[in-house]
Amino acid sequence: MTTDFCTNLTTTSLNGELLDDATCLRILEDPDIDLFPLLNAAYTVRKEYWGKEVQIHILNNAQNGHCPEDCSYCSQAKTADTDIESYRMKPDEEILEEAKQAYEGGAHRYCMVFAGRGPSEKRTDHLAGLIRKIKSRYTIEICVSAGLLDDDKASVLAEAGLDRLNHNLNTSERNYPNICTTHTYADRLDTLKAARNSGLQVCSGLIVGMGETRPELLEVAQALRELDTESIPVNFYLPLPGTNLDPSQELTPEYCLRVLCLFRFLNPKAEIRAAAGREVYFRSLEPMCLYPANSIFLQGYLNAQGGERKQTLQMILDAGFTIKSEQPLEELVEREEARSNQMVDSQGRLHVLKTREELRPARGSVADG
Ligand code: SF4
Predict the structure, then answer these.
(1) Which pLDDT does position 338 carry in this prediction?
(2) At what angle are helices 151-160 and 185-197 packed, to 10 degrees?
(3) Is 74 inside any structural domain?
(4) Does the pLDDT of residue 287 top 60, yes or no?
(5) pLDDT class for 368, splitting at 50, 70, 90?
(6) Which of 26, 57, 104, 203 would bridge with 166, disulfide CB 3.0–4.6 Å?
């Protein structure tokens, strides 16, 4: 039965047809549907559009903390009591040096993330100037995450050469009031529409494990399909100390892989990223996430460390995948020095916060601003 079920999933997805809700829920929770045939079916769809290539993303936390919003999962929220390294926007020289490092480190895309509700007009113009400089120096795509944007601000960034805007839906419309009260799901949707109106690609995903029901998870996947989202980061909730949202559900490696498969079947052409939580929740099955997903972050997340760079690159190489980069994967693996970042505590759950040096790798080589 599994084989027929999985063959139908592949065919339906490749035909661009929508799977019905009952089928989607079976992907997530039916124990009679074995995991490996499901992964193989998702891989067939992934391979059709992305081959065996993995897109590597590196995040630059260009402004950390100081956020007036109250997203309860976030260590940068005004309501969080996490001991993060807060700083206002990094000086331009530092951001430009980090863009250079990302390019030389094999990243195909450079993601700048600014905490906050949304940029002022002045900040938007400043970002536009930075985007122009990076684009003139490196062959790298740029993604910006800057909070809520209207049509005018999105246009300014698009005209500067921004490729993609990140703004996650995070969770379902119904669950949104449970995770944030200072803005709404509709606000987030409006920002994504502004990006679209300006001709930007859209990167928007979610955080799994924030109290959403499985039908709600499905609603998010369908909403992203309706938006024709180019890039979907699928994060798994990392409950950093000092944040206000308790982890409400167990995330097993199998469930996390099933979630990635669901997103692949519903969004066959999208770049699907096994994002935050990859190193923690997939455990020994981590390389399997490359079968439904075709994208990962290298060197950690906003305030949580990730796996060692060398280990991550080696995992891609060992699993027989390639990366999209001007730097050959084999050379990158050779160049990497293994670093020994301890990322889970003695209970195997929580994560060491990034150090100042990890948040601001270029700081020593440029003047302080
Ligand atoms: S998720 Fe973004 S908007 Fe929400 S608190 Fe964190 S930085 Fe602020």
Answers:
(1) 41
(2) 40
(3) yes
(4) yes
(5) very low
(6) 203
Residue 77 in contact with ligand 1 by CB distance below 6 A: yes
Mean pLDDT score across all residues of the chain:
88
In a domain, 181, yes or no: yes
Question: Does 108 reside within a domain?
Answer: yes
The number of folded domains in the chain is 1
For 115, the domain range is 53-365
Residue 31 lies in a domain: no
CATH number at residue 165: 3.20.20.70
**Mean pLDDT computed over 54-83:** 84
- Give how far Cα 251 sits from Cα of 55, 208, 210, 248, 294, Å: 24, 8, 11, 9, 21
Query: Nearest CA to 105 among 325, 255, 300, 265?
Result: 325
Q: Per-residue DSSP letters for 34-67? A: -HHHHHHHHHHHHHHHHTTEEEEEEEEEEEBS--
Catalytic residue among 6, 24, 109, 111: 111
User: Alpha carbon of 346 to those of 70, 352, 353: distances in Å?
Assistant: 29, 11, 15
Ligand 1 near 71 CB (within 6 A): yes
CA gyration radius for the chain? 19
What are the C-alpha distances in Å from 11 to residues 123, 282, 287? Answer: 46, 27, 25
Residue given tokens 């199998």 in the structure block: 254
Of ligand 1's atoms, which has the minimum distance to the CA of residue 116?
8
Give me the percent of the chain exceeding a pLDDT of 70: 89
Per-residue pLDDT of 181-192, as tens digits, reads 999 999 999 999
Structure token pair of residue 197 = 């109106």
